[in-house]
């Protein structure tokens, strides 16, 4: 019986981390790489920009030729060519000459600056300038963003929209990333029925965990499939064994029937190894984990809030790190607006509503009260060495948004 | 020429908001509703739990019968039935009687508490209890989470994993949500080529905006398709007209060829209405927007960083609000680690690296330097009424993570 010996949260988390595994590497089109994790360093194949580039529509000139030009003392230059975007000029800009140039076009030889169109007038090939430009002005120098051959992104970088742009500019139209972990969610519980608007049979309960756990898996960058298993040792055993062949991670919810005791853990013990069962946490004390066929098995409670918190405590980091992405709780400090009792030796994840200054825990704390998670946007975490907090104390808070992939 | 008259950022943003539109409503399976926005109130079809439910494996008892029981003074009760998960008992618990009960099972008539298995021993139908329980202990009362007929979620709620659980428990297996906006991204620029590791023709530049803008659209809950248009009035006109029939929003990038001037805006002016063109912001001054065929058209710069910032300033809020989801920049305050010059009358979005205390702007600020966005995790926003900040000043910061859908 687990209650006789509870692991500490940190110890249980360490047992999970010790069984860390990376997914395989796959090469995918860059267009599909948003929010994936690089499995290779990105070395630039090109300079970017690939040439000294005009940053404005205007005239490529020798900056020194414009010195002294002003509204009251305009200067005259001679237009000798024009360069549109995607084009270039073979001509060289000589003394007091100018070449029409588009934003993005290569600065022609001889020129070192661009004077903006709006500070000029033209009459045929006669250009009148009403302002001066310093050498280098309105020019984006070759390779100012990326230098050919340079490592511009490290393996294990998370690919946001801006990294996509940089990777493209470096010449990649495909990229090597870590595969998304495939998670099998095994829902146990003879009492569970699908959501329905019709009257539900006595003693039956709607299965909500399948929705929340699948979404939590997606919020961790992974993909999930769900199956249901009856509450018997043989059914659970068959489900876990089969899943351990085709999936990277297994998650179970429930284990409530007296007929089966802790049937899920019994199965894990039979066909694999239990890492822990029973952790000094609230909610979620019956949390367990094990390894079957080399695959991590997380055994979550049937109680909805307990299952969500157990996911956050154990599975999220595991799924992130499988994909080569570091994960740790981002703890921020807030002033508690209420007194919070806790118990020495137990870590509490208390649902709370927090803003940039304050945290206020949600009052209804039952581990079956989904609405408490809906009202919350954060956890107040109370360490096992703390006995709780007074109103006004500074507490550790993790915003839910900071947990997302 | 836009430079002669720039809109303020707030005015330009207001012109976009004034053209706010909602997408249509669609009914989808609850399994697909993660990260969508409710287009209906959720009224519970059931109580949850639907009955007084045991929160533990143990024995349903009359709490008063257990008073005084302890390790040194155990009490005896008689077991009269057993209830597994999904089952119920027709029996009533009488004085000094007990019924075996599983977590999740309905409390039988007569009983008002559950004593945990671990505080008991059994011998046949003789139960010995070594602890007392108060009435209500280990019982989750009927409807403690959800009351039948109650409105449990409002229209316009963003559906996180926890809302999914609540909606399921309320009896919904489908849900009405706002459709994802369909965005057409029209890339203009004769100089652009696809990413390649091979040598690139002179004057050509890799098209990176298609990747970043598409990902930004996805980060705003919408979906995007991309087409490329040549730099001529007719090609851009055809592309925008066609897109205005089949898509909810149009975004263009580029407009750099002298041959075309501001061809995109010329087209919008010809077939629709320009809302603004030219905004007192940095980066992204040439930003524009208009309406064609009732559809919003955002005209972004070809410069990668300018385009990303313009998206954040104008398009993100528009896409969120099309789906019924409120959006405003979540401003936090940080101490600037560097001096930041700015210019009165212009709003600056300065790429920065910020933590929970400090903000430090990325030094290379050219609007073509994608790497500056890659190094950054936040913007420092300098209002048009500020001339910049000294080192140590408190500045307004928006974390990139807080911008995500």
Can you walk through the features of this model?
The structure is a homodimer of 405-residue chains. By secondary structure, the first copy, chain A, is α/β, with parallel strands linked by helices. Chain A has four domains: 2-24 and 180-322, MoaB/Mog-like domain (Molybdenum Cofactor Biosythetic Enzyme, Chain A), CATH 3.40.980.10; 25-48 and 152-178, Molybdopterin biosynthesis moea protein, domain 2 (Alpha-Beta Complex), CATH 3.90.105.10; 53-140, Beta Complex (Molybdopterin biosynthesis moeA protein, domain 3); 332-403, Beta Barrel (Beta-clip). Helices cover 20% and strands 30% of the residues of chain A. The first copy, chain A, is built from eight helices and 28 strands. The first copy, chain A, has helices at residues 9-17, 63-66, 161-169, 209-218, 233-246, 263-271, 304-322, 370-375, and strands at residues 25-29, 42-43, 53-54, 58-61, 75-83, 97-101, 113-116, 120-123, 126-129, 139-140, 151-153, 174-178, 182-188, 192-193, 205-206, 223-229, 249-253, 273-277, 281-282, 288-292, 295-300, 332-336, 340-341, 347-354, 358-361, 378-382, 388-389, 394-399. In chain A, the strands form eight sheets. Chain A has a six-stranded mixed β-sheet. A six-stranded mixed β-sheet of chain A has the order 16-13-17-21-20-18, sandwiched between helices. The first copy, chain A, has a five-stranded mixed β-barrel with strand order 22-25-24-26-28. In chain A, strand 24 (347-354) and strand 25 form a beta hairpin. The two termini of chain A are 36 Å apart. The interface between A and B is large, with 103 and 103 residues.
């Amino acid at each position: 019986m687990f209650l006789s010996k509870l692991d500490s949260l940190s110890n249980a988390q360490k047992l999970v981390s010790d069984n860390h595994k990376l997914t395989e590497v796959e090469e995918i089109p860059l267009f599909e790489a948003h929010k994936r994790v690089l499995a290779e360093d990105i070395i630039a194949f090109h300079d970017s920009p690939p040439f000294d580039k005009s940053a404005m529509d205007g005239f490529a000139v020798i900056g020194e030729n414009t010195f002294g030009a002003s509204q009251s003392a305009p200067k005259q230059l001679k237009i000798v060519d024009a360069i549109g975007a995607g084009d270039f000029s073979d001509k060289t800009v000589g003394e007091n000459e100018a070449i029409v140039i588009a934003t993005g076009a290569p600065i022609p030889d001889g020129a070192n600056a661009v004077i903006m169109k709006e500070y000029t007038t033209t009459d045929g090939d006669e250009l009148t300038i009403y302002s001066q430009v310093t050498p280098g002005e309105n020019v984006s120098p070759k390779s100012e963003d990326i230098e050919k051959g340079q490592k511009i992104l490290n393996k294990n970088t998370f690919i946001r929209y801006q990294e996509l742009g940089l990777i493209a500019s470096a010449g990649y139209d495909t990229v090597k990333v870590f595969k998304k972990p495939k998670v099998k969610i095994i829902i146990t519980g003879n009492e569970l029925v699908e959501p329905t608007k019709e009257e539900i049979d006595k003693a039956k309960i709607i299965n909500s965990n399948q929705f929340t756990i699948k979404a939590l898996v997606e919020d961790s960058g992974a993909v999930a499939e769900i199956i249901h298993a009856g509450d018997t040792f043989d059914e659970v055993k068959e489900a876990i064994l089969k899943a351990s062949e085709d999936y990277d991670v297994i998650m179970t919810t429930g284990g409530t029937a007296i007929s089966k005791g802790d049937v899920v853990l019994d199965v894990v013990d039979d066909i694999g190894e239990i890492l822990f069962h029973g952790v000094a946490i609230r909610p979620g004390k019956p949390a367990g984990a094990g390894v079957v066929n080399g695959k991590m098995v997380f055994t979550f409670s049937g109680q909805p809030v307990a299952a969500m918190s157990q996911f956050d405590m154990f599975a999220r980091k595991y799924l992130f790190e499988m994909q080569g992405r570091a994960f740790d709780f981002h703890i921020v400090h807030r002033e508690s607006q209420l007194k919070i009792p806790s118990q020495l030796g137990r870590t509490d994840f208390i649902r709370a509503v927090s803003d940039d200054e304050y945290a206020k825990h949600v009052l209804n704390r039952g581990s079956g009260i989904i609405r408490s998670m809906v009202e919350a946007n954060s956890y107040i975490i109370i360490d096992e060495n703390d006995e709780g907090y007074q109103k006004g104390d500074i507490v550790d808070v993790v915003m839910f948004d900071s947990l997302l992939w």
